Structure formats: structure tokens, C-alpha cells
Amino acid sequence: MASSSQSVCFTEQEINKLQTTYDQGGLSKFATLIVKKLNDIKHAELNIAVTGNSGAGKSTFINAMMGLRGCDEGAAKTGFNETTMERTPYKHPTFPNVCFWDLPGAGTLKFPMTDYVSTMEFTTYDFFIIISNDRFTENDANVAKEIQNLGKKFYFVRSKIDNSIHSLELQGIDFDTNMVLTEMKQEISCSLMEAAISEPNIFLIANFNINEFDFPQLKESLLNNLDGIKKDVLLMSLPSTTVKIVEQKRAQLKKRIWMLATASGAVGAVPVPGLSFTVDLAILVAAIIDFRKIFGLDDASLQRLANIANKPVGNLKAEVRTPLVGEINTEFVKQMLMRTSIVAVSAAEMALDTIPIIGSIFGATASFAMTYNMLTDALDDLVENAQRVVKVAFPTDPGHPQ
């Protein structure tokens, strides 16, 4: 059997259970498991710890990951002095199940290393970001070792790299930016390995340049080192600042659509006047609204994106040309279903080789193909709009197709 990563959020054991449940209990029992998985995705939590010394740029990094400025409601507090005196949670403005924890630096009089792990509750986080705006210290290395002992992932982030580059420019020094960054990363790596940190993950970023330096690679690494639902949660929470992120979200959501179609047609489905099959319209309404939020096409998200891109929000809204940003209710979804073409859906199209039982469901519920196609059309429409918005917000993104 193929690896479970191909079937998004399902382990091989769960896939086998789906097959057995369908064989023994039919579609209704099978659909109950699908609804449970959708609820697991909806309520999954992700806790990310960000630690480092005073002035390292922890708060600004957290805000960048959430698509916020320091002056925005719910943003991490920033300042020239130490603003983190206790571990402080900051929930994502759109996805509150994602929480960044701003931790005060270790090895100080108030937070000695001997008590730091227990005081900061290290066991509660999914992974750690260790930030410095200069050299990583012995305290940073000690924190990394404690994380390593817990079997958790950690990433070294050297912030304010744009200031370092600008400093060289002000001095009139002739330099090659890529070479400077490579040498800087090698120097950091050597110092950390001398402190017994083997193969450290190092990223050089500028918190106000979210698509430059190593920031995109950092996000990619964070995603690649998470499994199943946790990966899904982080991806959906990332601000849609590049075409690549938009496409990654599309691919992940496409693999969720079959579950929504199954749940809508088999759990709580009722006859709907004008349709020749039973369906739970409320599930479909919620799905489209969720898609819209994930791509940042609601008014609040567009305003936040305009703020960080330093573009007039009207310019971004002008690129949104879909009725899916208006009111979505059961009547609206019903009309969408009535306009949806009845086209057969294949397992290959859904990339569901790892869950062969889905082929049996196509004929088990008349609504499956219709709801699957309708949600796919809605997803594609929202993706096209999100891509246009990103290209206007960040026209210099090298990921834009020419």
C-alpha cells in the first residue's frame, strides 16, 4: 500500500478500518468515520513555541507568520525593551486553533536554564523556533539540547538579515549577497555544531520581507516536518502571500472534497426541492465559507494582506471577481448544485489510489458526483481569485508564472 501521506490525514491503519467498516456496516457507518475525521481536522490544535533573547525579533516573527502588523488587534506586542516577561499565547486571527507562544529568553536571572523547560512547559508544543538577531548563544544551544531530548523539532532563525545586508551597503563594501548569506549560514552552523548541535536547521530571514531570503524555505521546512492533520492545520493558516502557497492549499483541499461529498450525501441528508437527490446543504455551505477563509478572500483577510503588502486594499478587492465572496446560504448552494454538470468522477481524478473503497461510494449515493464537482468548481474559482490577489499584492514574487 502507498504511504499514508498520499491519502491526507489518514494512516494506513485508518484506511484499513474504512474498508472494513464499509464492508460490514455499509455507507452510513463508513460516513460516520468520515465525519469524525472532518471534525478532527476542524478542531486540531497546533502550538508553536518561539524563544530567544530580548530584541531578537520574536514578536515580529510571530506577527509575520499570522499576517499581522504590530499595531493590529491580536498582534504580538513589540518594542525596543524586553516585552516578554512570561510565556504569552497569540492565537491566529482566522484560525484560533493555531497558537504561537512567545517565550522569554532562557538563562536569565528570572528564567534560569535549570527551571526553563518546566516553567515554559516544553512538552505542550509541537515544534520550536529559536530566534536570534546576531550570534546564537550558549543558552540557545542549551535550549536546543533540551528540545532534542524531548524528541521534538526545532529551527534556528537568524532574523533581521536585511539590516546586516544594509549595513554592508552603507559601508560601501562591494559584496555578493548570496555569498554573504552562505558564509553567514556556514558560520552559524559551525558554532552550533561546536556546541554539540548536529545538522542544525538554519534559516536567515527578514521579518518584514516575508517572501525573501529564507522565509519561504522556512515555511516549506515546517510543513514538510509535520504529518497528517498538523501539516494541514499549519498550511491552511499561512497567509496566502505566494502563488505556491495558494497551489499547495488547493492540492490539500482537493483531497478533502471527497470526504465533504460523502458526509453531505450520507449523514443528515434530506430531500431538497428542485434536486433529484438528498443532500445536507449545511455541510456544503460551511465548506465554501471555509475555503474562502483559507484563501484569505474575506474582507478582514484582504485588509491584513493589503497592510503587510503596503498596497491599497481596493486594489486587491478589484481582483476578486466571484459571487463566492458574497453571502453563502443553503439557497445559494442549491442553485450551484442545479447548475453543476453531471459528470462522472473517477478515483484517479481524486488521487485516491490509497483508499480504493471510494470507488464503491460513487454508486452508493446519487449526490456524490454532483457535490464533488460543485465543490471542485468552487475551489477552482476561489483559487483563481486568490492567485490574482497575490500577484497584485506581491508582484515581484519569483514564483509567479510568466
Walkthrough of the structure:
By secondary structure, this protein is α/β, with parallel strands linked by helices. Helices cover 51% and strands 9% of the residues. It has helices spanning 12-43, 58-66, 113-119, 138-149, 161-170, 177-194, 215-224, 228-237, 243-266, 281-294, 299-309, 313-317, 330-339, 358-364, 367-393, and strands at residues 46-52, 88-91, 98-102, 127-132, 153-158, 202-204, 270-271, 278-279. The strands form 2 sheets. A 6-stranded mixed beta sheet has the order 2-3-1-4-5-6, with helices on both faces. A two-stranded antiparallel sheet has the order 7-8. The radius of gyration is 24 Å and the shape is globular.
Largest sheet: 6 strands, mixed
User: What string, H for helix and E for strand, traces the elements in order?
Assistant: HEHEEHEHEHHEHHHEEHHHHHH
The averaged pLDDT comes out at: 88
Question: What gap, in angstroms, lies between the N and C termini?
Answer: 38 Å
Strand content: 5-15%
* Helix count from the secondary structure assignment: 15
Q: Could you name the ranges where pLDDT drops below 50 across 5 or more consecutive residues?
A: 1-6
Q: Biggest sheet, strands in spatial order?
A: 2-3-1-4-5-6
Q: How many β-strand runs?
A: 8
Task: Give the class from helix and strand content and strand pairing.
Answer: alpha/beta
Percent in helix: 40-55%
Tell me the overall shape. Answer: globular
Rg, Å, rounded: 24 Å
